[in-house]
Design goal:
Length: 266
C-alpha cells in the first residue's frame, strides 16, 4: 500500500516523519511517496486535492475541510510559537504603519497570514513571498515590514531587525487558546480505516523521534544544510511537543476557534 505524503523540509517536519518514511518503525505494510515542499506549496496542492496525506497550514484548512480529514498526530500547535512581525526600524504608531506600509507575508493561505489579518485587518499592501525571502526583503527595503516563521525567528536579531509584535501572543491573548500553526490531513478518498492506521503510525514516528532526542538524524540534517545543529534543535524544541503526538481537547478547541473566526471572513 503506497500513498503520497507531503511535508516541509523544515527540521520539525523531518524530525516528526523521519522514522515513518525511513522505516525506523514498523510501518505495517505502508509505503509513502514523499513530497518535500514549502508549506504554501503544500497548501496550494491541498486546494487541488493532489496528495493523499499532507502537512497544511491551519490557515488553509477552512477552505479544504470538505475534502480532507484532520489527523490527530504530526501537527504543530503550542504557546509562544507564533509568527513575528519585524522591521528595520521602530515605529511610533504600529497600526498606522502596518496599514499604510508594504508587508511581506509567507504565503496567502498560511496560518501566518491568518494571524496577521486577525491583528491588522485593514492592512492593504501585502506582498506574498516564500518565507525564507522575507528577512532579506525587509533588510534591503523592498518592504517596510515582514512576517517571519520557522528558523527566521532565531536569526532576525542577529541581522539587526526588530520585533514589532508577536502575532502568536496576540492570538493567545485574544482567544486564550494555543496557536494552531499546521496540521496533517488525509484526503477523503482514503478510507477511514487507513486514515486511522496512518495517524497511529505518525504518532509512533513522533514517539521514536522523542525517544532518541536530542540526537539529530542525518535525514533532518540533509534537509537543513544551512542550519547549525543548535538552530535545528531550537526549531524542533519550539514546534514539536505533546500536541504533535495528539491534538487533544485543547488542541481541537484551538482549531475550532480558528475555524469560527475564519467563517466570519468568508
Amino acid at each position: 500500500m503506497k500513498y503520497t505524503l507531503g511535508f516541509s523540509p523544515c527540521p520539525n517536519d523531518t524530525f516528526i516523519f523521519d522514522a515513518l518514511v525511513n522505516k525506523k518503525i514498523d510501518t505495517e505494510g505502508f509505503d509513502f511517496d514523499v513530497q518535500l515542499e514549502d508549506v504554501q506549496t503544500l497548501n496550494e496542492w491541498a486546494l487541488r486535492g493532489m496528495l493523499d496525506f499532507s502537512k497544511i497550514s491551519y490557515g488553509v484548512y477552512p477552505l479544504i475541510k470538505e475534502g480532507y480529514h484532520l489527523l490527530q498526530s504530526g501537527g504543530a500547535l503550542g504557546k509562544g510559537v507564533g509568527p513575528l512581525l519585524i522591521s528595520k526600524s521602530p515605529v511610533n504608531d504600529l497600526h498606522k504603519a502596518i496599514e499604510t506600509g508594504s508587508i511581506a507575508i509567507p504565503g496567502k493561505n498560511t496560518t501566518a497570514h491568518f494571524l496577521f489579518m486577525q491583528a491588522f485587518p485593514n492592512a492593504a499592501n501585502k506582498k506574498f513571498m516564500v518565507f525564507y525571502e522575507i528577512e532579506e526583503a525587509v533588510l534591503c527595503g523592498k518592504v517596510d515590514a515582514g512576517v517571519i516563521i520557522h528558523e527566521n525567528r532565531f536569526t532576525y536579531q542577529q541581522k539587526g531587525l526588530l520585533k514589532l509584535i508577536d502575532l502568536g501572543e496576540y492570538w493567545e491573548q485574544t482567544t486564550g487558546y494555543p496557536i494552531p500553526l499546521g496540521g496533517i490531513v488525509a484526503h477523503h478518498r482514503i478510507n477511514k480505516s487507513t486514515q486511522k492506521k496512518v495517524d497511529g503510525l505518525i504518532r509512533k514516528s513522533v514517539e521514536y523521534a522523542f525517544a532518541n532526542y536530542p540526537f539529530v538524524s542525518e535525514y533532518v540534517k540533509q534537509h537543513s544544510q544551512e542550519m547549525s545543529e543548535e538552530v535545528m534543535r531550537m526549531h524542533i524544541d519550539l514546534y514539536v511537543n505533546n500536541y504533535s503526538l495528539n491534538l487533544g481537547d485543547d488542541g481541537m478547541k484551538a482549531v475550532e476557534c480558528l475555524m469560527q473566526i475564519a467563517s466570519t471572513r468568508m
